[in-house]
Amino acid sequence: MAVSTTASLRKAVVYEWVTIAWTIVAGLASLAAGSILHSISLEAFGADSLVECACAGVLLRRLKREMRAGWEPSSGEERRAARIVGALLLCAAVYITAYALWNLTQHHRPERALFGMVLTTLSIPVMALLANGKLRIARAIQSRALRADAIGNVVCWYLAAMVLVSVFLDWRFGLWWIDGVASIAIVALLVYEGVKAWQASPVDA
User: Where are the alpha helices (DSSP H) in 70-143?
Assistant: First the structure.
């Protein structure tokens, strides 16, 4: 295995451990706070965080096995990992669509809970940094599974940002529907990457 590939795999393993640690804390805290505060947005964010945790767990297992067995970009291990992560992305797409449509049909306004604002604000830079790092490594080692996992992180910080934007726009202009519409818009990316991962398509350079 080349030295550069080994270094990339080690970095990816660190990124996955950070992802698991963050999403467990953020996910469980969001679900608990959402239940107490009756905040649908917090509960949805918590559920999405746990999906990200599951994706990271799949990739962590795949990367650690790769480091032991040697680099084989077309191996069955990569294909299985890509399919599992792709399926998780598609499940997240279904969940986000259902959640957004329910909010729109019920005219549900975004909550202004302080805990949720703080948590989503912190999540944006964390998820953005993880996503960028994983995307770079995915291109370097040609891993569709890692790219799909990174896209999940992109969606996570996008949704966190939309929580903040929708709260402001609702407060300032009464645009309560922005959150739902923007959430549905990101589903196209989830579906595209989920299908590509399921098919184990090559990663674009």
Answer: 76-105, 114-141
Task: Report the distance separating Cα 58 and Cα 5, nearest Å.
Answer: 19
- The pTM of this model reads 0.86
What would the two tokens of residue 36 be?
A: 């107490």
> Where do we find the tokens 């805990």?
115
CATH classification for the domain delimited by 3-199, as one of 2.40.50.90, 1.10.10.10, 1.20.1510.10, 1.20.81.30: 1.20.1510.10
* 59 touches 141 (CB < 8 A): no
CA dihedral 118, 136, 85, 68 (to 10 degrees): -120
Q: What is the pLDDT of residues 13-46, one digit of tens each?
A: 999 999 999 999 999 998 888 788 767 777 778 8
